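We give its fold:
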Amino acid sequence: MKPVKVGLLGLGTVGGGTFNVLRRNAGEIARRAGRGIEISHAAAREYDPAGLPGIETVTVSDDAFAVVDDPEIDIVVELIGGYEPARELVLKAIANGKHVVTANKALIATHGNEIFAAAQRQGVMVAFEAAVAGGIPIIKALREGLSANRIRWIAGIINGTGNFILTEMRDKGRDFADVLAEAQRLGYAEADPTFDVEGIDAAHKLAILGSLAFGIPLQFDKVYTEGISHVTREDVGYAEELGYRIKHLGITRRSGAGVELRVHPTLIPERRLIANVDGVMNAVLVNADAVGPTLYYGAGAGSEPTASAGGAALVDVARTLTADPENRVPHLAFQPDSLSDLEILPMEAVETAYYLRLCARDQPGVMAEITRILGDAGISIEAILQKEPQQGEQAVTVILLTRAVREGQMNSAIQNIEALDAIDGEVTRIRVEHLAS
C-alpha cells in the first residue's frame, strides 16, 4: 500500500525527536499502521542536520505554508507551538483536506473548538495525544479505553517543572527561588518560567482533560489557575509533619451543580500513589464509576516521550485514512452534536478542605478568636499544629487543617482572621484533596 506522506512543521526538540523516532522505528510502525509513514517535507528556520540522520532525503525549507500546501502531503504534524502562526497553519491544512497531528496544548485549549469544527466540516482528523502529559497515553485512555465509564474526577500532575521544584523543596529543604534557578540551568524551566510555575501550562492541559472527561466544549478561560511561587519550604515541611505532600495539581470534577476546572497547589495524603510521583515525571489519576481509580504515569515532556505520543497519533490517523469520517473516534470523545452545556463552577462554589498557615501573636485568647471565626463560617477544624516561638519573638506560627467547605465561606473566614489585631500578615491557604476512591 502507498506510504502515508507526512509534512513536519518544526525540527526543534520535539520535531527532531519525532523525525528520529519515525525513522528508527519505521518497520515497527508500518506493521502497526498497515502502511509506511514517511516524512517527505519539513519546515524549519534552524536545525542541526548532524542530529537528524536521514534528513537529507527530506525536502526542508523555512516556509511552513509550503508544507501545508504541498499536494503530496496527507498529514501535517504541527510542532512549532504557540498560538500564531500555528492556528493559521492548522486551519489552512484542514482547508486543504489534510489531517493534522499536533502537540500544541495552548492551541487546542484556546482554539480547539474552532479547529475541530473546521475538521468536522472537511471530514479530516485532528489528533493531539502529545498535547497532554507528553508520552503518557492519557487522551487515548479517556477517549477510548474508558469510553464505557462515567468519569467522576481527574487529578493530575501535568507540569514536570513545577513537580521538580516541589520535590526538591521537600527532599532538600530548599527555597522556591533557589530550585527554580536550578531548573532553568537544567533546561526544565524556560528563561521566563511563568507558564510553568504559575499554572498556565497545566491549565491548558486541564481544559483538554475536562472536555474529554465530561463532553463539554473547551473552556480554558474558565479554568481557575494558581501557581506555586508562594509555597515556602516551611509549608512543604509542615505538610510532611501532618502526613501530606504538596503537589501542583490540575483537578476537574463533575458534581450536581456543574464541572470544576482548577489548577493550584494541593496537599495530598502521603500514602497516595500520586503523592509519590517526584521530579519531572507526570501522573494523571482518573476515577470512573465502573473501573474505579486508574493511574497513568510517565515522562510528561522531552524529545522522544513527546515523539512517542505524536507517533502514536500518526498511526491512528494512518489507520483511519480510508474510514468513514462519521465513524471515527470523536475529537473530544463525545459526538460533536452531543457535547453538554454543563456549567463550569466558579471557584467560590468549589468545596474542598484547606491547609491554613498564619502568624499570630503569642497572647491569650487568640486561638479562641480564630476558632470562633471559623465556627461562625461553618468550618470544622481537623488538626492544629502550633510551633513554639523563636527566642525573643512575640509571634507563633499556627497551622490549621480544616474539613471540606465551600471556597466562598473560606474566603470570608480568612478575611475576618486577617482583620484581627493579633494576626501578622496574610493567611497562607493551600487546598487539600484526599483523592479517595
